[in-house]
Amino acid sequence: MKTQSTTLKSLALWSVILSLTLALLPTTLAQSPQEPNKDQSEPKQNNRTIPETILSEPPPPPVETPQNDKDSIPTFKLNTNLVTFNITVTDPYGRYVTGLSKDHFEVFDDKVPQKIEFFNDDDAPTSVGIIFDVSGSMKGRLTRSFEALNKFCDTSHQLDEYFLVTFNNNAKLAHDFTGDSRNIMGSLSLVDPKGQTALYDAAYIGVEKVRTGRHTRKALLLISDGQDNNSRYSLKELRQLLKESDVQLYAIGITNVFSGRDLDIEGQVILEELTRLTGGRAFFPNNDAELTEVITRIGLELRHQYSIGYEPTNTKTDKRWHKIQVKIKAPKGMPSLSIRTREGYFSQMSSETK
């Protein structure tokens, strides 16, 4: 009987152990790896649990970020084939004619008609380079030259900018761009004329410098007797540079054209050739009254010009010289009008820019 009682006690103990084991089994399965802990799987925002309905929605498409800045900038074509130039229109009395429209002009490129794409007749400011001869040949002429330059600045646009190149044995930039013409006059106040004449070098420096001006219109005013005897650049090289540059050259020849001297005659011919090439003009005043008149005329001319631009129909980039011809259809009731502009241009390569 004792053995039977012991066996029953053992069975009862195992029964209790089995019941406890079965009671703990669901909790163990709930924490199995197949179903992650809820506290660890639910993302939170601002310490608040995000509803399951939001988590079930598909995420928004990712925003594409360009790999570099270059890919994010649109590409534009920059048409460098646009040819622009200035035109001076005068009546039979030499007076400047304003108020015309682009319909009054016809443009030809190597005799081929062109469509005017750009037209402007505003009184726009100009970047002006003053090229002043301080060589020995200008002795006795400097006072007249100072007065001429001062008068020119008085008649210029109030927003014009100036720089000064002086030359005798050598050419140099005597004063950089300034909006105050008094700075230019101050740089010339202590000039002592001496030495030889490097006119071509000075004009070459002037062309290169005026290209960096901030205004679209660019001009050079050369005050000299037109003689050159000390330049490294030749007349041919200067002529070629002027052909390639959209710069108008004006000259005041401080010479005596009636002297009969070969140097005076040669200087006049050179100045006339260079200015005509650019659409500018050379003047040779004989006295103070004429000097005042012509310098005022140059200042006014720069303020009463038409700017015209066109894209050549011949897009062949052969970099050759193109002849420009402009015809004017005068309005009814007006007399015959005269035109002065640059003779032509060298074609350039078109390009793309970002």
Mean pLDDT: 79
What portion of the residues fall into strands of 2 or more residues? Answer: 25-35%
**CATH topology-level name of the domain at 126-303:** Rossmann fold
Distance N to C terminus: 107 Å
Q: Name the strands of the widest sheet in spatial order.
A: 10-9-8-11-12-13
CATH class placement of the domain at 126-303 = Alpha Beta
- Superfamily (CATH H level) name of the domain at 126-303: von Willebrand factor, type A domain
Can you give the helix content as a percent range? 25-40%
* Count of separate DSSP helical elements: 10
- Main beta-sheet strand count, sense and barrel state: 6 strands, mixed
Structural class: alpha+beta
Elements, N to C (H/E): HHEEHHEEEEEEHEEHHEHEHEHEEEEE
Folded structure, characterized:
The longest helix is centred in the first third of the chain and has 29 residues, at 2-30. The termini are far apart. This protein has ten helices and 18 strands. With 354 residues, the protein is of the alpha+beta class. It has a domain at 126-303: Rossmann fold (3-Layer(aba) Sandwich), CATH 3.40.50.410. Mean pLDDT is 79; it is low at 26-79 and 350-354. Helix 5 packs parallel to helix 10 (288-303) and helix 7 packs parallel to helix 8 (235-244). The radius of gyration is 42 Å and the shape is globular. 33% of the residues lie in helices and 25% in strands. The strands form five sheets. A six-stranded mixed sheet has the order 10-9-8-11-12-13, sandwiched between helices. Strands 7-14-4-16 form a four-stranded antiparallel sheet, with no helix packed on it. A four-stranded antiparallel sheet has the order 6-5-15-17, with no helix packed on it.
